[in-house]
């Protein structure tokens, strides 16, 4: 008998979670103004809102926290993290930050000004928010295949080189301070970028004299897909692949709460001393001194250890197989999901799931509410709410994909939990034709509205 696949870890500590009744959930989501972010965690049975900062740290990570050096300047924990970042990414310069959006804030303060154009592959919400907050413009150059969910393309996160070059030709060099490549590409369904595409983007960028920065929150998951899907990398280790990936960039922003499996932390990696020094001033202003940057010594120690654990093949195999386990159950039942399955989440095509709900009634958010009411499972909308309003016209932007994301925390849930999630979503799918009305907005913030928006049923 062939031995079945088994997780590459065992459990040492558990946390109790409580089920609730449907009538309770209906009341709670109403009080929360139909915003899943407003729910208390105690009101959620299985929380798939995000994989950011929600993973379970290892015994080694917890133990190294006890060795944290909390010195304000020059702590040993800083140098431990510096060595880990250099070893894994190859970058000699880095700035610690308290999380990924803080890294974006520091880097963009140094590089981006009003009127600038920042091309990339489906910039995520905080990335686009930081760009537009500075009166600059994000231009999506993702390949068209990313927006056809049934199409089996191995690298739907790729940048379309023709689209990118058209942007580079259209605008003067001084208006394009950087190109952003998101690995894996969250907004298109957690889809990876191929090594060949990264290399080609870098060659094109160098021709125009424009630096390339990677949004690297899930770089290790991206490397795993390269190992499986690009033939010439089959025999390479994850860390060998990672080093080559980053050789095609001038720097990186990192939300360490994803692939480094910590609850808080981030950093910016730099190839060039000039960008490091320019950003250092803003790091001191916004985060803290350059050798702690908003992080405690114990958190830097946990992050350094997590970078090694997160780039281990067996860990990645376990993590990504669990995501695919959920995706396969849903797809086998006929539920429309982004395929191939992404690295950190399953993305459901809300428009095809709820065909009777009108586009302007926030279809993916409606689906998220229905899933919560059905089983106490919390996902997150990656659609019209997240796309926000056009900064010039203030009209809703309707993205090509209206998705509900179910993000799987790392090393947290068992496959029994995944079975429960699948059953809850299948129940909603079975009654989808009775869901004919969506939601409308009562109150919203001028930017990044999806975090705090208040809604009511139509």
Main attributes?
458 residues; 5-stranded mixed beta sheet; 3-stranded antiparallel beta sheet; 16 helices; 14 strands; 12% strand
Brief characterization of the structure:
With 458 residues, this protein is α/β, with parallel strands linked by helices. It is 40% helix and 12% strand.
Strand line-up in the sheet with most strands: 2-8-7-6-5
Rg over CA atoms, rounded to whole Å, is 21 Å
Helix fraction?
25-40%
Tally of individual helices: 16
Give the biggest sheet.
Answer: 5 strands, mixed
> Which residues form runs of ≥5 with pLDDT under 50?
none
Strand proportion, as a percent range, falls in: 5-15%
Shape: globular
Number of strands: 14
Please report the first level of CATH classification, the CATH class of the largest domain: Alpha Beta
Structural class: alpha/beta
What is the topological layout?
Blueprint: H1 22-31, E1 46-47, H2 59-65, H3 76-89, E2 93-97, H4 100-111, E3 117-120, H5 125-133, E4 137-140, H6 161-170, E5 179-182, H7 195-208, E6 212-215, H8 219-229, H9 238-247, E7 251-255, E8 266-270, H10 273-286, H11 297-310, H12 313-333, E9 345-349, H13 350-353, H14 363-375, E10 377-378, E11 380-382, H15 384-387, E12 403-407, H16 415-430, E13 439-443, E14 454-457
Parallel strand pairs: 1-10, 3-4, 5-6, 6-7
Antiparallel strand pairs: 2-8, 7-8, 9-12, 11-12, 13-14
Helix pairs in contact: 1-14, 2-11, 3-11, 4-5, 4-10, 6-7, 8-9, 12-16, 14-16
């Amino acid at each position: 008998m062939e031995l079945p696949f088994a997780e590459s870890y065992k459990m040492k500590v558990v946390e109790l979670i409580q089920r609730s009744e449907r009538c309770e959930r209906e009341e709670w989501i109403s009080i929360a103004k139909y915003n899943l972010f407003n729910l208390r965690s105690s009101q959620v049975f299985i929380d798939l809102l995000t994989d950011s900062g929600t993973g379970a740290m290892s015994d080694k990570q917890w133990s190294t926290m006890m060795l944290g050096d909390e010195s304000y300047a020059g702590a040993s924990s800083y140098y431990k993290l510096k060595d880990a970042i250099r070893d894994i990414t190859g970058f000699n310069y880095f700035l610690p930050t308290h999380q990924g959006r803080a890294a974006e804030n520091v880097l963009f303060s140094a590089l981006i000004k009003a009127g600038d154009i920042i091309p990339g592959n489906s910039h995520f919400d905080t990335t686009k928010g930081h760009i537009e907050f500075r009166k600059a413009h994000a231009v999506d150059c993702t390949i068209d295949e990313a927006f056809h969910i049934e199409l089996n393309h191995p690298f739907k996160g790729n940048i379309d080189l023709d689209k990118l070059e058209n942007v580079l030709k259209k605008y003067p060099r001084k208006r394009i301070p950087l190109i952003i490549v998101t690995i894996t590409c969250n907004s298109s369904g957690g889809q990876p970028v191929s090594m060949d595409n990264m290399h080609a983007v870098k060659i094109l960028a160098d021709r125009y004299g424009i630096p390339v920065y990677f949004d690297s929150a899930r770089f290790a998951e991206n490397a795993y897909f390269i190992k499986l899907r690009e033939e010439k990398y089959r025999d390479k280790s994850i860390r060998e692949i990672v080093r080559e990936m980053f050789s095609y960039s001038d720097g990186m922003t990192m939300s360490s709460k994803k692939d480094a499996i910590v609850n808080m932390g981030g950093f910016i990696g730099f190839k060039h001393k000039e960008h490091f020094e320019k950003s250092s001033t803003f790091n001191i202003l916004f985060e803290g001194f350059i050798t702690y940057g908003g992080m405690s010594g114990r958190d830097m120690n946990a992050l350094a250890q997590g970078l090694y654990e997160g780039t281990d093949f067996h860990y990645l195999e376990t993590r990504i197989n669990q995501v695919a386990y959920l995706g396969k159950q849903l797809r086998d039942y006929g539920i429309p999901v982004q395929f191939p399955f992404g690295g950190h989440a399953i993305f459901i095509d809300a428009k095809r799931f709820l065909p009777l709900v009108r586009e302007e009634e926030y279809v993916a958010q409606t689906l998220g509410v229905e899933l919560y009411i059905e089983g106490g499972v919390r996902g997150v909308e990656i659609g019209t709410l997240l796309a926000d309003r056009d900064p010039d016209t203030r009209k809703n932007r309707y993205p090509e994909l209206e998705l509900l994301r179910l993000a799987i925390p790392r090393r947290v849930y068992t496959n029994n939990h995944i079975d429960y999630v699948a059953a809850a979503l299948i129940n909603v799918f079975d009654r989808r034709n009775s869901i004919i009305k969506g939601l409308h907005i009562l109150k919203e913030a001028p930017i990044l509205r999806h975090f705090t928006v208040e809604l009511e049923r139509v």
